[in-house]
Each structure stands twice: as structure tokens, then as C-alpha cells.
Amino acid sequence: MDKAWYGMILVAAIVSGCATTYVPTAGNYVSDTNLSSFREVVLTVHGLSCPLCANNLDGQLANIDGVEGVAIDLNTGAVTVRLAEGHAVTSGDLAAAVKDAGFTLKSVVPKGPGK
Questions:
Q1: Helices of type H across the chain
Q2: Does residue 45 contact residue 20 with C-beta atoms inside 8 Å?
Q3: Region 88-102: what's the mean pLDDT?
Q4: Cβ partners under 8 Å of residue 28, min gap 6
Q5: Considering the domain boundaries, does residue 72 fall inside one?
């Protein structure tokens, strides 16, 4: 893809409201909790509004060692993260990936014991 396409994608993202930034405010703090006993975690992420946003976040989360898969619901902002057995992922790891992708993490909810 040439530079012109990248520029057009960036402009489209900005115009559509996809280019969001993380603004740390009260209530957005996520403690660094060890998630090793869980195989699935649901994140609530503010700012997801299009497939380009979802791809960006998916890529950031997929780069975390121990993440097996990511499913994103653009309508609700719910991001389900499947974790590998024996992983060492923490909520801080997930929060950092969300922040690096340019979004605001509202909550991290582990789903059921993994063992």
C-alpha cells in the first residue's frame, strides 16, 4: 500500500471518530491482577467504533504472550480475550495494550475459573 492510501485511511479514521485517545480519569484505573486462573476475560473498551479500530486493538492484544484469541463487539465495546492454558497474563498487560491502541479501558472481568 502506498503512502496516499495510508493518508486516506488516517483521514477516514479521524473523520469517523475512530482516532481516540486514552484519557486517564477516575474510574478508569485497572489494577495489575494476575489472571492465570482464568481462560477468558471480558474487557469493556470505550472508543471502538469501526472495523479499523477493532483491527488495531485486536493486533495489540494478540501481541501479548498468552493471548489465544480476541473477539470484539463494536456495538457494545465488549472485547472477549481467550487466554492460553498456563499463561502469565495480567490485567495490567491487557490495560497497556488497550492504551497503546489508543482506547480507554473501562473494566476487566474474568469469566469462570480456567482450571
A1: 3-16, 51-62, 91-101
A2: no
A3: 94
A4: 104, 105, 106
A5: yes
Whether residue 6 contacts residue 75, with contact meaning beta carbons closer than 8 Å, is answered with: no
Q: Which residues contact 51 (CB under 8 A, 6 or more apart)?
A: 74
SS3 at position 52: helix
| Number of structural domains found in the chain | 1
Length of the chain: 115
Q: Could you tell me the residue range of the domain that residue 33 belongs to? A: 19-110
Cell (9 digits) for 82:
481467550
Q: Are 43 and 108 in contact (CB under 8 A)?
A: yes
Average pLDDT, rounded, for the chain: 79
Q: Tell me how far apart the alpha carbons of residues 76 and 54 are, in angstroms, rounded to a whole number.
A: 12
Average pLDDT for 34-43: 94
Give the CATH number for residue 96.
3.30.70.100
Lowest mean pLDDT among 31-35, 39-43, 82-86, 106-110: 31-35
How far apart are the C-alpha atoms of 46 and 72, rounded to whole Å?
Answer: 12
For residue 82, is it within any domain? yes
